[in-house]
Amino acid sequence: MRRTAAPLAVALALSAVLVTGGTSAATPGSSHGGGLRDVMFVGNNWDGTATVVDARTHEPIRTIDTIPDRAARMAEIVARPDKLVFYLAIQAAIGEGRAQYTDDMFTTHDGRLLAVSRPSFADVVGIDLITGKIRWRFAMEGYRSDHMGVSPDGERLLVSDSTANKVHELDIDTGRKTGEFPSGDTPHENNYTADGERVFHASIGRVYTPTDRPVLRQPYDTLKGERVFQIVRTDDMTIESRWDMGKELEEAGHPGMASAVRPMAVAPDERFVYLQVSFFHGWVEFDTQAPDPDVTYEGEPTVGAVTRVVDLPKRTTEPREQYVLDSAHHGLAMNPEGTTLCAAGTMDGYAAVIDRDSEEFSLVEVGDKPYWSTNGVNGSECWVSVSGEDEVVVIDYDSAQEIARIPVGDHPQRVREGVVAEKVLKTWR
């Protein structure tokens, strides 16, 4: 177990490896207080669009163009050889032959602006939901943007800068940078605590490399880069705790597992975190406060330990070299009560609804390549994007049954809860 309170230096290592919409009419639905409509945003990565879905009726409301400035961005990329190399490399190595235009999305609390990370354009933009125009743009220091996170007060936006190995903090209203913290190779997911004082963050390493069967801890495993799970304080952007999950798993009696933490679900007590790791068909429980008196860091006992490793059915016959960016499973949510998990079985074609205590599960057949799971606004539903089917499947937590299947755009990935102002909805009608 490892703990540190000082930021670690990171390096730009990816370059050496990589150089080789339409609309529909608004539909009625329940409104959030204060003239806001509860919606879910579905990011259609290959389309460059976001589908807005009424969170309660499950009816699509509108499709938003997330790349209205595509011509300007492409002209910029073509004029810069380094940017062009990375644009093509992202398309070939990460985008499965397609450009990645829409990754993550969050709305402002007033429901008038949508922040969108766009990996192939290496930026984040704030899109005015009335005009569809870009209100602000923040360019990455590196060559690709990825997962984001929004603070509970709705003021701060985190975005992972994939090749700069850091996470930027922005003012969501203006796009102005307000801070940053270091990560490992290919920073990935960001989850704020309920009070906004800490962030659970993970980096996944170079998931696009062909070296998918290393003997862990051997020299060629370093081709995957530094993969860390860490807790960051938001007041000064310092790293409170940092772990190599592969080593934690090995210490817990599970050698040979990867270090890359994929999606995670934080329990309501914010002590236990549930993790998916590369190549693993299942989930890991990690206690961030478990003491280890036998290991010290700077004279103090360390904390953090793997407490459970639970398998789910492996149904794919594909070799692990064919796993999508090393993801056996990619998508993990937990209901607000903290009793049930919802896992997207990416390579297995199912969503698993899991009792947290008993580990018993039910499988819901969703189709090809489920790629994300998140809670609906009322807490009783799990929304799973099924990227190979261009659909989102809504599952009831209590019954573990599909209750809706929503057609969206090309290759849906991230699904996020949000709000849209009634004034915006009127202009859409």
Describe the structure.
- The chain is mainly beta and 429 residues long.
- The chain has five helices and 29 strands.
- The protein has helices spanning 14-18, 70-78, 81-94, 245-251, 422-428, and strands at residues 31-32, 36-44, 49-54, 60-65, 105-107, 113-118, 123-128, 134-139, 145-150, 156-161, 166-171, 177-182, 187-192, 198-203, 229-233, 239-243, 261-266, 272-277, 282-297, 300-311, 332-334, 340-345, 350-355, 361-365, 370-375, 381-386, 391-396, 401-407, 412-421.
- The N and C termini lie far apart (55 Å).
- The model is unreliable at 1-31 (pLDDT under 50).
Mean pLDDT, all residues = 87
Q: Characterize the overall form.
A: globular
Outline the biggest β-sheet. 5 strands, antiparallel
Strand content: 35-45%
- Termini separation: 55 Å
Cα radius of gyration in angstroms:
20 Å
Helix/strand-derived class?
mainly beta
Question: pLDDT under 50 segments (min length 5)?
Answer: 1-31
How many E-type strands? Answer: 29
Helix content: under 10%
Number of helices: 5
